[in-house]
Fold this protein.
Amino acid sequence: MWIACACAGGDSDKPGPARTAVDASPKARLRQVSGDVRLKRASGDEWVTVHADTGLLANDKVRTLRGGSAAIEFVNGSVVHLGADALIGIAETHPPPGRDHSDLTLLRGDLDAELEDPSKQSLSVNTPTATVRAGREIVFQ
Amino acid sequence: MTWLALLRTAVLTASAAVVVQPGETLEQIAQRSLGDARGAAELKALNGLTGDTLPAGATLRLPGPERARAQNALMAARNALNQSDLQADGRAEAAESLGRAEQLFQSAKYEESAAAADAAWRLLSGSSARSTRFAVQVTDGQTKVTSRSGRPVRVEREGLSRAVHPGEAFTITEEIFPGAAPAIPELVSPPDLARLTTRPNPKGIGGAALSWQPVAGATRYLVEIVPLESPSAKPIALSVDKPAARVSLPVGKYAWSVRAVAEQGGKSNSSSRRSFELAVEPLKLEVKETRWK
């Protein structure tokens, strides 16, 4: 599921040189970062400290450590708040034209999600045991 | 009146009426003029007809643009109802309002039909205006979902799903998925608008074989058959354990849909709705020649 490359990671928005099969457009952006929050690019192996306003690409992972928290805003406007000691992945999505859909994987910890306009937005949260869907997709799937 | 106004009146008059061709039935006229054979009942109501036979050359009035608006309103309401959760606030009221809208449409009361369909849609979409907030927590082998406000969220796994409504919390583990509902059945046969025939019999009863795709996790199916020609008649409800049902019905027109039921009782939303007509086969009379004079 995760695409791992041998190239170096970093906290910039620039895709690595080996990122050929990965969608390079940001899927989301870190809006607030508090405490120790780290990022592992899909194109890298290292966990690096991350700051607010960093763009997140498909297959990137974000981890909050003890006492850390973060707010992530997806391109469709849905917002996810990560609590302490959480691990998420930004999923690679290819929604049909006209659909604003965000997709993430929560592997550990807890998150609070908000869809400002659920008639237009949708968000899926995949976990090891289930998929949670909210918003437009429920009605029009 | 100017030439242009005269021409416009002539075009409007021509497009708002249809002339009956020799041997044409109401269904055929509805198909030709409205693009839908089910519109026969509407044409009948719109033109105040009492029988089904029409003299060639007769002119029938056609519905105006209000029909398309009613159709759109009905479609939006049907979609909202089909995809709504069974426990959704106002669902029963919305279903009743939609049923009334369908009847009004058949009676060619398009504006009233659109109003009733819009009312059904509003009942089901009332919570959509608010933002949706929910929380997800993953701990050892389990996921806890808490719906805080707005629309319900849906929890899914391997074809089963369950709605979590605002104010409700729900925990799913690797082994247990309580109250899960199966996927929505996909109808197979008969195709929409099928005409099924039965041999003439004194009671005017015929058989219809209905089938749909089996649904993973479903232990039985609930079939609902709605008589379309007698609005006061109650829908027929069946429970079967296979993805097929054979029913005996009086001749007439019917709409049908199916819901899947999981072992623990969770029910899927209704499938898409199809309709069919059950008609008596025309009698073939073969008269042999006789030597008697």
